[in-house]
Design a protein that fits this description.
Helices cover 33% and strands 22% of the residues. The chain is α/β, with parallel strands linked by helices and 190 residues long. The longest helix is centred in the N-terminal third of the chain and has 18 residues.
Length: 190
């Protein structure tokens, strides 16, 4: 199973357990950050999120909302200063506001970081069909970056989904396009 698939399944299961009622932008980001932090702890990764400052007193890595890095890597702790030799896996950005420029900017940030998995969780209008213009733009951005390593995962939600606790449709980068892993309702984290 690919890393993006493992992350999507674990993220959706953890989010379901932590789901809370109605959330605004700040609450949604904190909620999803806590999900990523819980996964980092479960997998014994070093993690940092907006909701969880790291040992350097910062809460973001390259202004990404959440990042995990391997612990125990042979070159993990250079001179006791931290994780500067390993690369993030995954790096995550989250965009609650249904504004194309913000969603595209967040994905561009992900494409600029060397990571084995890049995850963008974002909200579109009131129906999943509202995602079509976003997916077209995100696909074009990704196609321009054919030489980069790693997997890409979009966690797509709607405003209605977010106000009732986040629910997501995972879309995976496969053969030049974002697509669902499976064609069943199991793909939607609910």
């Amino acid at each position: 199973m690919a890393l993006a698939e493992v992350f999507a399944d674990a993220f959706c299961a953890e989010e379901l357990q932590r789901r809370s009622p109605s959330m605004d932008n700040k609450g949604w980001t904190a909620h999803l950050s806590s999900v990523v932090a819980a996964l980092a702890a479960r997998w014994s990764f070093y993690g940092t999120t907006k909701a969880m400052p790291n040992e350097f007193g910062r809460s973001e890595y390259f202004t990404l909302d959440a990042v995990m890095m391997e612990r125990g890597h042979p070159r993990h702790d250079v001179a006791g200063k931290g994780n500067w030799v390993t690369f993030p896996m995954p790096c995550v950005t989250m965009e609650f506001e249904n504004e194309p420029i913000k969603i595209l900017y967040d994905y561009w940030k992900l494409l600029c970081v060397r990571s084995s998995l890049r995850v963008l969780a974002f909200i579109v209008g009131s129906a999943l069909s509202d995602a079509a213009p976003f997916l077209k733009e995100l696909t074009a951005m990704r196609l321009e970056q054919q030489g980069i390593d790693g997997e890409d995962l979009l966690l797509l939600g709607t405003i209605g989904m977010a106000s009732n606790g986040a629910r997501f449709l995972p879309l995976f980068w496969r053969q030049g396009a974002f697509a669902e892993l499976r064609s069943s309702e199991q793909d939607i984290c609910e």
